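To whoever is on call:

I kicked off a structure prediction for a single chain this morning and the downstream step that reads the tokens threw a length-mismatch warning. I double-checked the sequence; it's 308 residues and nothing unusual in it as far as I can see. Pasting both halves so you can look.
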Amino acid sequence: MNDAVQAVESPMSVPRWRSLLFVPSHVPRFVEAAHERGADGIILDLEDSVPQDQKDESRRQLSASVTKVGRKGAYVLVRVNRGLRALAADLDAAVIAGVDALVLPKTASAEWVSEIANAVLELERERNLAQGRIRFVAQIETPGALQSLSAIASAHPRMIAMALGPEDFSASVGGAPEFDLLLTPNLSVLFAARAAGLLPLGFVGSIGEFSDNDRLREAAAHARRLGFAGALAIHPNQVAIFNEAFSPSPQELEWARRVLAAEKDATAQGRGAFALDGKMVDPPVIRRAREIIATDPGAELAVESSAG
């Protein structure tokens, strides 16, 4: 099983999503192979990648698809449609056991998130599902939504992550998905998500570029340096790149272990700040070290063992 295997979680816990892979829900061979891709989460898409005349069949097959893509422990998400009639049909199909989150495209307001949350709660109650277990990932895809990011991020406890949809956002402003256009909206999503305790997902660039591995690897590494936790993938080739880029390197883990070990000694001596490798270490640096360790359970155990 891959390292996306889930422990029993409270509804408010934050998962580790380095890679979330979109899978067109109407293509059986993609659904069958999805669990072998190594992604932390699989997004069964009912929206853009599914032709209009195949959406109903995708909904009918969704329960079986959920079981298939979750076979190795990956989180299972479903991207629903934005239009009211399609959204109602999508929710009826997707609010089922085994679904961990819904991806909400073109999210533009907190009120919209709340309306969907109310509908999901009704379905959970009717179906005797755990209330509040299904979370929301908001895709920000219009310039108008940038004005409501803070409200969207805190719209409902189901909110777990936010991501900019680079292609749709660029099209909505009449531009191309290039770095200069996407940097500011990506940072805006990052700041709003972090302020609300959500996962910021994405990188500064086009999600459609999957053939240039070196370029994608650098974009993902840059995104992690900015503060992003993971990214959405539209091709299996992107998964391994994102998993590596959004994971701490061995050097980072070693540095974090040394910081926390030195902090223990400093605390015993009554010091809140100390020097390590010729650099000052204070609470913000210690926090970064703890966050690095938290992404690697094995490293956390090693720190506890050495501390004992």
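Update from on-call: the warning came from a stale cache, not from the record. Cleared it. Sanity check on the structure: The longest strand covers residues 19-24.
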